[in-house]
Records
---
Amino acid sequence: MEVRQLKTFVIIAQEESFSRAAELLGYSQSAVTVQIRLLEEELQVRLFDRMGKKTALTGQGRQFLEYANRIIQEVNRAKEAVVRESELLEPLHVGTLESLCFSKLPPVLGYFRRNYPKVAIKITTASPKELIAMMEKNQLDLIYFLDRPRYSNNWNKELEVREPIVFVASSDSPFAGKRGLKLEEILEEPFFLTEKNENYRRELDQYLESRNRELVPFLEITNTEFIIQMIRKNRGISYLPYFAVHESLKRGELAVLDVADFRIAMYRQIFYHKNKWRTREMEEFIRLAKLDLS
């Protein structure tokens, strides 16, 4: 039994696909099939049921998965003990939101570049739902997103920080500086919003729906930096995390609108899967995120 066979077995179990596992591992599909056949022969059990394109763990396969994950973690632990004093070298794949990518990651990535130049960092941006799905399939080392507090027995949570979500407009907007606004007063203005059905946008839509109202935005886009540029230069309103607009507020380009009847907060959170070996590169990223260098 080889560690590479165990890693292949775990990836197939996560992806529920021999072909997808081969693609992720850089093997041919026939090589993956041979590894699993040899493993099954050694264990004298069938690990997967393969019916057409569907691949699922057998009962023995599910039981063996627990041990395979433990063995891989112990091997990683042993490697870590040997190289603990060496420089950081392993690649790091982080999943995050566009708003966090622009607002919170540059100082962290800058620190890595200055202090650990050999660490290859890959950033993937997606919605919280998509990031969680990728983490569950071991496609990301850790995820860093903004949402209502999330929990699962399968995850380790490393960070949870409250972040207000605010209505913002250009500093010369007629609503800037006006106290005690009602949401109803600004609904007819052109809105530039992030996409529907995700985190804080979802909360806004649900609130309006409960009052038999609907907000049809002028523009929907995932890129918060583009939204900020648009409302800075045009008459319009957006609804964004305070940290995303903080710099524009300091420069006097934008103003927070005092909408008194709808105020919520979301939480910056960092997770990684409990079956994931926590590398020193992950530990350093988490440490820096907690310091909030932005």
---
Amino acid sequence: MKVKRDQITGLALVILGIVMLVLISQFKKPITAEYPGPRMMPGIAAIGMIICGLGIFVNGCRQKTADKTVITKAGMLRVVITFAALCLYILGMQYLGFLIVTPLLVFGLAVYFAKASHVEVKIWVCIVFAVAVTAIIWAMYVPLFGMELPVGSLFE
């Protein structure tokens, strides 16, 4: 039996979802009815990744022929770097908090993907983009939903 691309993708999504659940379980604030806490949204995303990964895996098992296209080494490297960046992001939020780690992650990934795609992007554009994404997420969580975002154990 040949392993198909969908099986690998599905399995990778399941593993990523499980790793994310393990990492966010280390956040100290519990999920309650009146305050879902900083674990809720990443938890929903992780569970969604697991469910989608299982669906993709099952679909790959049901296919009779293997796909001819496979991910290139450069593409796999991008996946690994993005996964590592997200793991560092979750760990970094525990110590440095959302407002420090989020713009760093967004900036780093924006620059990395621009260079990997051979696109010329000015650094100031990436900085503005990272700050804007962070501000929009903060504005949605804190004033709009009335939720707290991690401030980091170094600043508590």
---
Amino acid sequence: MKQEEALINKYGKDSGLKVPEGYFSDLEANIMASLPPYKKAEKVVSLTGWQRVRPYVYLAAMFCGIWLMMKVFHTATQPMNMSLDNPPAALVEMIDGEMDYDMHYLPFSMMDFDNEDEDFIMSYDNIEDFKDDFYKVGG
């Protein structure tokens, strides 16, 4: 406290800064007079239902596109897993003769083979005979 009293005695309480007389009473009027004229707000246009939903539809379409691209790339990079241990179901049923098949659903047609290939295919009664011959020739 002694230091504060010494400073007050030496310099006084007056900071040297003064506000002119009536400054705060005229302040609002002076500021409003210096501002440019106020423009009226434009009429608000209401949005249609589609304009409200459109961003969400676009977002969903984007995610569907990304999912589809990832699915295509994943499928394209996977090796074909076709072996005698896991033959396509249509081929197994055709060889076993258990299915009355329609050639339009098969990935190939008997017309694609010449007579020798047709005789070769028809010489097997089931997939097990074909496996036995395949493994004899292969190794």
---
Amino acid sequence: MRRDVKPLYRRVNTRTHGVFHGFGRKAKWDRNTKAAFTDQSMRGKMYKKHRHGLDYTPLFQFLISKVGGDWDAVHSEAVGRLDREEPIYWLVAKSKEAGRPFVRIGESSYVSGLYIDEDNRLAFVDPDLTVEKMKPLCPCCTHTFNGKRFTQSYASSD
């Protein structure tokens, strides 16, 4: 990777005391039980399945800024600035039918869904979706859509 181009991800702190990022704590107790000998999933090596400590918010902002651009050029630039290709397809679908209007990233962050149109251009799945139309799911979190706070307040369904 060239040094003059910033990567499209950033590292976040995973060493903070009391912060657990989904690390399995139960497996150490189940490993040497009788059930573990019949369950083949417990017999393998203990490789990491989750990649903690990476934030792809810059990638999502980059993809949204490139809407309307040629997909091949956008894809090649993004892949060159990432550690792996998979996070691109969290947002981008191959067709409009496979795409979603928005994608939930994290607990209360949402990003517009994208797809590759017939002309090989990057496009929004739902171009009419705005932050004003989004409603929060709970009263305790700060919900965001494409980096902007929701304008509607939480309304309980009681």
